[in-house]
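Mods, move this if it's the wrong board.
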Amino acid sequence: MLKSWVAAGKSGISNTRDDTMVLALHVLTAAGFGKSYDFDNATSTVTEGHKMTFGDALHVVLSKFVVVLLSSSLNIPRGAVAKILPRSFTDVQFAIAEFKQYLVEMVAEERASVGKKSEDQDNLMSALLRASDLRDAKGDGRSTLSEDEIYGNLFIYSFAGHDTTAGTLAYAITLLARDNEIQSWIKEEINAVIGKEQDETWDYEKLFPQLKRCLAIMVSLSSAIVITTSPRFHQS
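Not the wrong board. Structure tokens:
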């Protein structure tokens, strides 16, 4: 993302929102589903048996959530949608079907490999599958997850995390760009904590708690977003 911004030259960029939406999608696909892509190629690979990429299907489902709800509640067969409803409903129904198929395939793939890696390597999907497998091991499903609950949790994680992550990042980048003093303050901490280490050697659990200035800035920005988007703030 930064490389694409630098490539814009002196003209720079005027809007961070679209790119932070893509960045947030990367975070979700990696942390949630264990799928990583280059920034400019998040939606370039169509898996065999599909007509949309996983990134495209997920993006449509998340960005058109109101249409997804209407489409699901109307319960109209896909073949009849094109004759009755606008094109947007047809596109969303197609994306829903593709997203569901991807989920089924990825859960099956992850389940086959979850026993071959340690819990330290887990993404959200593999962590949920470990919880689900307890049901078979203990013979009691009351405190474990069913297959439908796995899909539901993955979707809720994606939906709840996408806009909030993208919005916070867009807000933070814009505010930091306006304040060189805070930028320098954060840069000093990052250089002190990370130094000349290459990103391949970064240890998240070790480094993240040490970035107290960065954490303080993000907490204050998150609070500012909540306050400034509150109806009470605008009423006052």
